[in-house]
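Blinded run. Sample ID left blank on purpose so nobody reads anything into the name before looking at the predicted structure. Input follows.
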Amino acid sequence: MAAALFGALGLPGVAHARDGAAPAPISAAAAPDSAAAAPDSAAAAPISAAPAATSPPVDASAPVTPGIDVPKQGDPRDVTLTRPRGKPWLIAGEAQYRSLLVTDEDPANDRYLLYRAQGTYYPLPWLSVFARLGLNQRFVSVQGESGLRMDDLALGAAAEQTVSLARLGWQRTLGLSHSLRVYLPTSFESHEQNLYFATEWSTRARLHLIDELFAGIRGTLHYRFNEYAEQAGPQGGTLPRLVVELRPFVEYSPFVSDKWGTITVGADLHGDETIDYPSRDPANIPESELPPGTLTGSSLSGSGSSDSFVTPHYGYDLYASYTPPIPHFSFILSLEQAGNVVRYGEPRLFFIHRDQTELALHAVATY
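Blinded prediction complete.
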């Protein structure tokens, strides 16, 4: 996920390569685990739209007593998603400042801001429905434009469950979070691609290992329904149709204090396969249909109507979060990398790349 931690407000957990190879849904802390949306992500990501799966569902007003398998703090990327006590709804807002780690002489091209707002309602302790809308602000813009552009509107539902591992001889509980999202084409990019809508299913498994150490994996399926299979123009390529992503992650809270707050550090790796729509070019173009003077044989070979391009991507997220003792706030600093596996015809992986590695600062508030 290029933007791991992608939205403390839930993003689509699909990675976003800066070279445009991956579609834009939205995790991953997914964005890390992610976003991700996201934030599993873009990848993201890296907070998902699922409530934090840290303990079995309980009454919202009942106190929670940490046990051997219950962390003192929930997943920092899910700070906006834990059901509040005493009410069945939650409003969350997020602001992100993102910049390339290595900037050019004109840094305005390499920096941007993201703003997101999400409303969540909990009809059941383990079930939530939500709506999210966001804006992104570039520091450069086309003449006559403000530099502000909308994200796709996300509507979805999330559910959590726990699975006891006692029958395997391990006194632990596996927390599962599932989310289903539908994206409506309110963004500029989706309008340009004639997107009808996109759907996404994400499942995250999270396990408490020891003390404040956790590990898990997030899987995401993202499907896009476009009007056309290819973009218009001589440089127009086939559009992405399906993205399959896996994102293992690990996180640890070295400092947990009721007085001073909690510090959590974490990392994830993510890889995905982006499958484009099949090419609509004919397999062969007869000579009679070629322009006069074309130097070729009796026919010209095309891409073939059954050909479909598959593009693998990779990435990682390194992050540190701070949850202060003041309620309703959280802050995350992350280093994120995402890009194509194959470059110039051969596999090339980079830990740091000047056109892809981003530094991001997230601030999240809930009510």
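Unblinding after everyone has recorded impressions. The chain has one domain: 76-366.
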